[in-house]
Amino acid sequence: MAVGDAGSGARTAKMIVTIDGPAGSGKSTAARKLAARLHIPYLDTGAMYRVVTLAALEDGLDLGDESALYALAVGAPFELDCRPTHVRVTLRGQDVTEEIRSMRVNDSTPYIAASPGVRQVLVDKQRDIARRLGRLVTEGRDQGSVAFPEADMKFFLTASLEKRAERRYHELLAEGNEDVTLAGVLDNLRRRDLTDAARSVAPLVEPAGAVRIDTTHLSIQQVVEQMIGHLRCAGLISAAEAADASSPAHA
Ligand code: DC
């Protein structure tokens, strides 16, 4: 799998920041904004599970066939281009960045995410990407707990179920899904929470040593400011970077 240039200038220091949390907690937006502010790449690990799902669907694989899924993941017919402001995903040379967000892929991804073989391959790839990029913000369900337990800073984002459903509902509408209802999204999230937390392989857990941020009543801007504050307090970013981050120009 290929990874894009970090675009992080001459800095060579290593810094891994993990952001985990349930669907709708705001972690994807927070990860993107934090990475953009710090001018370092971000890794959307959900996109990795989604692109393997799309590949499995295209190949007509049985989503319960563990050895076929493992072979598919090892073959890695996909690439992620990790930049500070976006991640572009290609599958067998085709840009599938949008397609991996479709309901078809959405609904099948939990099967792929429950495959121990696929998880092992993808976690190895995530570590490989981190080694190559040096500094990154990585986001998912198991980044601070499984992939990078020694991360420099771990965040765990939460929010009430109702707030998460509201956010997800607006996202889906913005993506052009016109037939979604708030009640349907809430029900879907409630079920996803249960599957994510109850699955035997890498269930969603709050990583040891993580900074927990409840985003229910916070704007994304406030979430990022809190993260910047924690990174600054831990001495992971300079005063200049922290000040830069609070500039309205970066809102
Ligand atoms: O964050 P997302 O909605 O794009 O994630 C897609 C799916 O992949 C979702 O079912 C959770 C799963 N996932 C996971 O199990 N581990 C990760 N590190 C990232 C995502």
Textual characterization of the structure:
The chain has one domain (13-226): P-loop containing nucleotide triphosphate hydrolases (Rossmann fold, 3-Layer(aba) Sandwich), CATH 3.40.50. Helix content is 49%, strand content 15%. It is built from ten helices and eight strands. The longest helix has 18 residues, at 116-133. It is globular and about 50 Å long. The two termini are 33 Å apart. Residues 23, 45-46, 49-50, 109-110, 113, 140-142 line the site of 2'-deoxycytidine-5'-monophosphate.
Q: Which percent range fits the helix content?
A: 40-55%
Morphology call = globular
Give the strand tally.
8
> What number of structural domains do the residues give?
1
In the CATH hierarchy, what is the class? Alpha Beta
Helix-strand makeup class? alpha/beta
The small molecules bound here are: 2'-deoxycytidine-5'-monophosphate
Largest sheet: 5 strands, parallel
In short:
With 251 residues, the chain is an alpha/beta fold.
Topology:
Layout lengths: L14 E6 L6 H12 L3 E3 H14 L7 H10 L2 E5 L4 E5 L2 E2 L7 H11 L2 H18 L1 E6 L2 H5 L5 E6 L2 H14 L7 H17 L12 E4 L5 H14 L5 H7 L6
Parallel strand pairs: 1-6, 1-7, 2-6, 7-8
Antiparallel strand pairs: 3-4, 4-5
The structure holds 2'-deoxycytidine-5'-monophosphate.
2'-deoxycytidine-5'-monophosphate binds next to helix 2 and helix 4.
